[in-house]
Structures are given as structure tokens and as C-alpha cells.
Amino acid sequence: MHLPTVIVGTSLAALIATVTMTVSSADAAAPIRNWVGCMVPSPAVTRTVLAAFESTLGARPTPSAQAAPHHDTDGDSHGRPSATPSPSGLDSPTASDTPTASDTPTASDTPTTSASPSDSSSPTASSTPDPSTSTPFVPVGGGSTVPDSAELSDAQLADSVGVDVHPSYSGTTYLQNGSNDVALHELEKLGVKNVRTRVGPNPAPYLQTFFKGMAADGIKTLAVMGTPDGRWGTYGLGQSPELLQAVTSGPYRGLLSGLEMPNEWDHNGGSNWASGLEAFDTEYSSMMAVTGLPILEGSMAHPDGYSSFKAASPSEGRNIHPYAGSSLPEADAVIPTWSSAASRSDVNPSLTATEFGWHNALDTTGGVSEQQSAAYLLRGLLWNKTHGVNRSYIYELFDEKPEAALQNREMHFGLVAVTGDPSATPDTWQQREKPAFTQLKDFLAYLKDSGSSTGKPVAYTLSGAPSDVYSVPLVRSDGSTDIAIWRRIPLDSQATNGATTVGLNLPATASVTAYDSQSGSTKTLTSAGTSVSVPISGAVTIVRVTPGG
Q1: Which DSSP helix (H) or strand (E) runs through 382?
Q2: Does residue 93 carry a pLDDT above 80?
């Protein structure tokens, strides 16, 4: 196959003829698309040429013919990740399994307002999936002694937490009165410093304000770049030059910390999803490499999707969506199954869970109570981080729309609930922070440590502990150690079961306090020499040990 290397001055008709006559099967589709995206100087011409090419080849269904986002009706995986449904995610803003006009992004989701002048700061290159902070330390069960090599700090655990947001979704809680101010306020209050969202061409002023507000608050943004067909107002094939300009000198300059390939395209991309994803990966990995930003591979909706797709270039890390359904956060098969499925010899072994969480639609399969999901989230964050997941993005910040029947899970993944008339405008709805929001906020505040932690955790053993007790030591810059302890048990609807007491045995006397993640309260524990009685349950308790106290 031969393609010209100089196309300046070539007529549009001749260019289309060259492309469409060069290929006769889908096997050569990816290199053709990549060549067009890289060599054609005009994004508008690129889209015209690619449209003609796809029409001739018939290699990909048009967006209107592609499968509408639809997820399995069985949301209970019982620890079998391959059967665990994944929510619609960043690229599927649906309010039901079959999207209606009001649930699919409208014209307002694809901003046409020209970008306002951007600030002059240069793009940041802070690594989103940083393998140096990924600690494959397995939590200690029962009364086992903590291994000397276990080193994980409060600051590393806090930095492993992220949240998904959808600022461009019109008709949802995220966008009220043409502004994302409510979402930005809740992010600031929550204290999470990592956010995942998507980007598209010509972001409206309200979106630029939101991105700049997050950057000003020290929040790092991982951006899903688009979809092969440019669906939902994102960047598509042939538009990588536009994104490059937007990131290096345009509206996203200095506002992104990482880039991500298309979201769950094995679910959203129709029958030819793999070829479309490969074309997108080839084009964008090459074009965006010059930004210096880490590029994360695309996620899959189901683990078996990874084996059907071959990425064009090495990724900064593996990207998984390890939803546990109504199973426990420590379900044995979840992380290993996803990690194995996403494994590739040319990919950084670091794992990033770009979606993760539980929904509160109690009248459908897989729903858990708000109290249960609050406790499971903290347990899940600890479990993920100590099982090789560098960062876990909780899906999602807001319940997107009021849905009182609790039957549509897509509307109930949020950390913040919403009530009101779903047919009314979002600014009339009422937001309520769920227990998960409050407990995560307080948890992150308790972990906050401004110093650098270089020491080892205090040695300890647990006595009188059931076999389902797990603990994770976390070092702090002042020399103290936080020990997160919980029981790996199913929780009742109020998440109050499993209360018991264990003995914490230390090498020397120390000051010991216990933080209750459910109440947010801290109390001093009385020691008997070097032994301390610690109350625990199925929710996380953090015991802070300060030597010499």
C-alpha cells in the first residue's frame, strides 16, 4: 500500500480518491485513518476525507446505527467481575438502559461558543498513574504480624482517591443555570484532589471556568480525549491536531494532568468497536505524545474486551473498571481478574481504576443502602490501593437526576443525592450529601499530612481477632502510624453490624487514639502496658499510634 507524503495543494476530490481507492478491506483501515489524521493539515478536511473513506469501506456503522448504551440487567456479580455490569460511564450519560432524547447529550453538551483566551501557563506533566506510589502490600488478616517491608503513607492513600464528574451534562445536577459552580463547591468541600472527566472541542466559557477552578484548588484532571466517532461532543478520528492545539496553547493549556483513551468502547462502539478504537489509539497516542502528559489506555466495560483490542503503543498504565456489584469490596476475584485481563508486556503494570463504586437504586439488582456504600467505599479504597491499584476514581460525584423509585441505577451512583421534580430545571432540585460523601470527606481530612513520610510503620500484632479482620499500616511524617482496621464482612442496611474488640500489641508504650469513620469522632484508648483494646466493626477504624506517648 502506498500513500503520498506530501498533500499540500492536493484537491479535496483527489485526496478522497487517493484514500478510498487505496484500501479495499477493513484490514488496512487503521493505517489509512492514522495517515489522514496526521497528514491532512485541516481538521475540517480531515473529517470530510474520513467520512468518505468510511462510507466507501463500510468498516464502521454510523453513530445513529451504533448500539445504544445498554447494560446487563443482572447487576449482582457475586464476585464474578466478568458478569459485573458497568455503568454508562463518562461517555454514556443515560438515564435509562435505552437513552431518551432528554438523557442523551443535547446540543448544549457540545459547546459551540468559541474559547475565551486561556491563561499562559504551560501544560503540566504530573503523572496520573504513578507506579512509584503503587504499593502491592496485601492487608494483614487476623493476628498476623505486619511485614517490615510494608510502607504506605497517609498521603499516598489520600492521593489514590479520585472522583468522576460530568460538567457538560445538560439537564443534570452538574449543570445548573449555565454553571458548574455547585459541582466545584462540592469538590472543594470533599477534598479530593483527582478528577476524571472528558474534553471536547471549543469548550464553552462555563466549562473553562470549571477546569480553571479545579486547577486553582490543586485538583488534577484526567481527561478522556474522545471516541472514534466523536460522539457526545468529544474529539473523534482526525481531530487529534485540534486537541493538541487545545492542550498546548488553547483552552486546556495547563489544566490537564493526564489523558485517557476512549471509555468502555467495547460496550459503546458497535460491532466494529475494536478497529475503531485501534484507529483512535494509533492517531492520538502519536499526536499527543509531544504534550508530555501521561496517556492512559482505554477502559473496557468487561474484562474480555481487552483481548479483542491491540493498542498501537505502550500506555502509561492499565485502566480497569472493577465494579463489585453488590459483592464485598474485597471480593477475591475482582482485582485479579481485571488485572490479568488488562495485562500487556508493553504496558506499565500500574493499575488505575477509572470507575469504581456502588449504586443506591435499592429497587434494582445490585443496589446497596447509602450507609452500606459509604462503608464499602472506604474499605474498597484501602483494598484497591494495597492490591496494586494506583488510583481509584469513585463513580461519581452527583446523582445525575431525581429518580424517587430507586429503579434506575445510573441515577444513583453519586456521592451527593438529588431530589425534586425531574421535569423541572436542575436549579430547582435539592442536593443532599450522602453518608459516603461525609465519611470520605472526614476520612481524607483525617489522613491529611503535609510532611514527607520516609519511616517505617510501628510493628504490631493483633490478638483475639477473627479471621475476617484486616489491617493496613500507614506511616506519617511525624513518626506516628495510622492502622486502618476493619472486618471483611457483609454489612446490614445500617452498616452497624460486626462490632467486636481486638487487642493491639505494640513493642513499647505509645499514645493511641481511634478514629471512627462512620461518626467522624476520635477518642483516646487506654492502654495496659503495651497492649490496647480496640473496638472495630465492618466499617473502617483508624488507630493512630504515636511512639513515646
Answers
A1: helix 370-385
A2: no
Cα–Cα distances (Å) from 290 to 236, 280, 293, in that order, read: 19, 17, 8
The residue type of 138 is V
Cα–Cα distance, 126 to 93 (Å, whole number): 29
Cis amide bond preceding 278, omega within 30: no
Of 472, 447, 127, which is closest to residue 317 (Cα–Cα)?
127
Q: Distance between CA 279 and CA 276 in Å, rounded?
A: 5
| Type and span of the H or E element at 209 | helix 205-216
- The sign of the dihedral angle between the CA atoms of 87, 321, 335, 273 is positive
Of the candidates 337, 421, 408, which has an alpha carbon nearest to the alpha carbon of residue 69?
A: 408
- What is the spatial distance between Cα 347 and Cα 352, in angstroms, rounded to a whole number? 12
In three-state form (DSSP H/G/I as H, E/B as E, the rest C), the secondary structure along 420-431 is: CCCCCCHHHCEE
- Mean of per-residue pLDDT scores for the chain: 79
What is the value of pTM for the model shown? 0.78
Is the model's pLDDT at 84 over the cut of 80? no
| Closest by Cα among 311, 111, 271 to 198 | 111
Burial of 238 (0-12, 13-18, 19+ CB in 10 A): buried
CA distance 161 to 393: 6
Give the tens place of pLDDT for each residue, 326-347: 789 998 889 999 999 988 777 7
